[in-house]
Amino acid sequence: MSITSQLRLFVDVVQQGSFAKAASLNSMDNSSLSKQIKKLEESLGVQLLNRSTVHSRLPQQERTFWQRRIN
């Protein structure tokens, strides 16, 4: 999968607030989506999301950047 496609998946995870919702939106299973986000993080050399069993959240610094880009 291209980095562009991985970035689109990342955006979907952030907008949906969970891997499960983003996976459903993209007709993927959770593990496939998670693997793509992990590959994106490895490519960029940064952890993009704080993961939990319930939610996926941007770290505070990235959340501030994201909100500035969206608004």
TrEMBL record:
Domain HTH lysR-type: 1-59
PROSITE patterns: HTH_LYSR
UniProt xrefs under Gene3D superfamilies: Winged helix-like DNA-binding domain superfamily/Winged helix DNA-binding domain
UniProt protein name: Transcriptional regulator LysR family
Organism this protein belongs to: Vibrio variabilis
Classification lineage: Bacteria, Pseudomonadati, Pseudomonadota, Gammaproteobacteria, Vibrionales
